[in-house]
Amino acid sequence: MPSKVMSDRLLAVLPDDLRPQAAQRLAAAEPVLRRLLAGLYGGRADFDAWLGDLMESLGALYSARPPELRALDAQRAAQPDWFLSQRMLGYCAYVQNFGGDLNGVAARIPYLRELGVSYLHLLPFLRPRAGENDGGFAVASFDEVDPALGSNADLDALTTQLREAGISLCSDFILNHVADDHAWAQAAKAGDAAARAMFHVFPDRDMPDRHERTLGQVFPQVAPGNFSFVDALDSWVWTTFYPYQWDLNYANPAVFAEMAAAMLRLANRGIEVFRLDSTAFLWKREGTNSMNQPEAHQLLQALRAIVDIVAPGVLLKAEAIVPTRELPAYLGSAQAPECHIAYHSSLMAAGWVALAEQGTGVLREVIRNTPSLPAAATWLSYVRCHDDIGWNVLRAEAAATGSGGSGGGNAGVGASIASNGSNGSAARLARVARFFSGAEGSYAIGAAFQSTDPNAAHGSNGMTASLTGLQSAGSDEERALALRRMLLLHGLALSFGALPVLYMGDELAMENDYSYLQRPQHAMDSRWLQRPVFDQQRWKHRYDVSTVPGMMHQALARLVRIRRRHDALAANAPRTLLADAPDGMLALARGERFLTLMNFSGQPQSYALQGAWRDCVAEQAADGTLVLEPYAMHWLERE
Ligand code: OTU
Predict the structure, then answer these.
(1) Closest ligand 1 atom, CA of 138?
(2) What does UniProt give as the signal peptide span (predicted)?
(3) Which residues pair with 47 in a beta bridge?
(4) What domains are there in the chain, each with its CATH number?
(5) Ligand 1 centre distance from Cα of residue 381 (Å)
(6) Backbone angles phi, psi at 248, to 5 degrees
(7) What are phi and psi of 459, to 5 degrees?
(8) What digits encode the pLDDT tens for the residues 100-128?
(9) Model pTM?
(10) How far apart are alpha carbons 486 and 466 in whole angstroms?
């Protein structure tokens, strides 16, 4: 069917005044959308009719978009790199932990502004499954706010207030699965064939067993296997995560159309960024691990084309916790844009490896493996998040960089491990995981996640402060070292060249929360260690530099302020890894005029500066040979 016919289906439902603009956007994106969807679903007899209906539903969502959001769309379409500025800073929190409810979050807007936050990621706040729900990642309705957190009207009010404060709201959009009490799952259980076709349902173990041969496991301990038997269906359902999270079947075009519309309805409530959860898993293919499949990228590119037509002010953020080489594809290319932002989980995990090993081999290899990006796309940098720090994404870098861990002669945890080949790299990463669970003479207090095998690494849990030694510190000196380690990791995230996101509580050096052990539904999932309730007492001390929270908060706020002043630190401004630093250090140049020096080891490190510099943090001149104290960081600008 010709492009014009499809575009007309959308234009027909728009009021006259919106048509010229829509026609313009369609001219650019409709052919792309149609090509992508034809590639996925074109073989079906009803493809043209389906696509026509999709266009009409997009038209309805287009005309329902509130004028103030349309204005934002226009503004951002005129400046598509708006989110790459060094003035952008993210903050991530659970609604219930940060503000109690949505109104409580609104009450914290002044605090966020004071920190310089311009992007707020609130972890899942839509109506979750009744009972256990994986921290809200099992969604029962995409159209209702969780009643425990507020109403849809509260969400509308919050997005309005945030927008007025210059803060973009980011919401999770959990598009890989829905809860087993979502209307589709309930209808399927009641015998509705169309609803059943929204999922991957198998009458016996034949196909599940064939898939299992090559699938990995996300939660091997608490949710082993990737299929769950559902009595009401008398069948097996694909459940990559917990058994109550049913994977959606994107081979069915109805799933794509429904999910695209659900996302745009949320966009029309003023959500400006969607964190697309578990994007790697969207398409299944026998004989593979059913991750990062080409069709998953086509689906994301089709979603992007839809956003570019209906709500071009909206950003898509890929959550794909996959090896570094698989990451760039989630940002697409200039010709085929995909997401605007992607989590750089390798960079995040490698910062922690550098601390454990007191050497930067893996970190440098990650940076070398990080390609430059299409113009209006960037990485998300972070120190930690609500999930575990996953080590497996670093297998390739750990294998490529020898044993690691030299840090000024003080053997780091990797020092005695030979790591050529995958067993070596697994053992090396397993040692890092043990380090952060407190073994290997470590200052860290954390928990290994989802692995009982001492030779395998999965992930590590714990708050940044606890993993960097604050919780175990017995003296001011040890506290000072922990503080430096926290600032070092934050400094990496802030100066790397990315959109940095702070994790709630880290700015106040909050420690592990053990209350989850008392909650039977959470006790087996140690990710709850790092999901504490915002500490009001620490917050009150944020200006008091005689306290640890005050020291952390003030030092971090200072880095944020310095970052804002330097356009060399903008997300996609040039970055060069300098090879002349010792292994315990990382030296990162941002253009010709800015230099970040980081000591990941417990020993002093020297670095010979070329030319005259100014230390923007210490506010003093720096030249000649600079000696970096253990875990110290220097941000230098050229004089
Ligand atoms: C995401 O995470 C979420 O961030 C988790 O909180 C959810 O439990 C999960 O999806 C299911 O919705 O693999 O790329 O290892 O890193 O579960 C997606 C733990 C994921 C997480 C993993 C993850």
Answers:
(1) 12
(2) none
(3) none
(4) 177-247 (3.90.400.10), 576-638 (2.60.40.1180)
(5) 17
(6) -80, 150
(7) -155, 175
(8) 999 999 999 999 999 999 999 999 999 99
(9) 0.96
(10) 10
